[in-house]
Amino acid sequence: MLSRLANIVLFLSGTAFAQPAVSEDVYKNILRYTGFAAAAYSDSCATPPSGSTVVKTFNDGSTDTQATLFRDDTAKEIIIAFRGSSSPKDLDTDFEFKSVPLTAVGTSCQSCKVHSGFQTAYSSIASQIISAVKDELSSSGYYTLTITGHSLGAGLSSIATSSFIGSGIKVASTYTYGEPRNGDSAWVSYLGSQIPDDNYFRVTHYNDGVPQIPPTVLGFEHHGPEYWQSKKSGNSAATTYNCGANSTSCNAGQDYGDNPINGAHLTYSNTVVAASLHNPSCGYSLL
What we know:
The N and C termini lie far apart (37 Å). This protein has one domain: Rossmann fold (3-Layer(aba) Sandwich). The protein is α/β, with parallel strands linked by helices. The protein has an eight-stranded mixed β-sheet, with helices on both faces. 31% of the residues lie in helices and 21% in strands. The protein contains seven helices and twelve strands.
């Protein structure tokens, strides 16, 4: 009750919205990669986002970790999208949040600790993805690479960003949606030394509870600036705020209720993102 009253006071004083709204160009990109993050949930993407094509899909049977590699010839871009939680095995991964040393391929930080489940899941398909991405970038010439994912996929995207860069792959940008905390302060500093904040977009939505877990009391922190879609629905550039790092008045200042995986977590950029069937980002209509 007290937290809700505090939020009302902040709202009325204008403090909660002291952060600047994003530009139309930034919001356009947030919308674009929402589509790819959502499309990763589909086992068969009939109409990939933005006129792109599916190059390859990845699926590790032991962890059920999945990702999709897209190619957009118009934008001259390669996009790797990691799927969010969509199965009981994925939930096992989510709840395996013991903090362990960073060992993902290509990384080099002896003091860094990360989410055990995310690292195990990423490592199960890392070699396949790195090889495929390198091949695609080599064959395409001057294409750029963007990494994206929602929920569990956002946690994997974070580790993948570090892993790819450490493996000699240039990452143009990373866009995550509903990203859980996935490492300690050393990890935050290390990833920040690899990719500039201007190239990492950690998007949150309304009172989505997943960005608020695992709790900071367990030593987990967020990397990069937060871009908060502040309305429950009908968001635009005018209602999406650049909150900077470690804001307490944007997503973290909201009460997510009894379940962190709430309606705000399942919808981003005014569309459903966690649909395995009838996925709107793949051209299907929701029933």
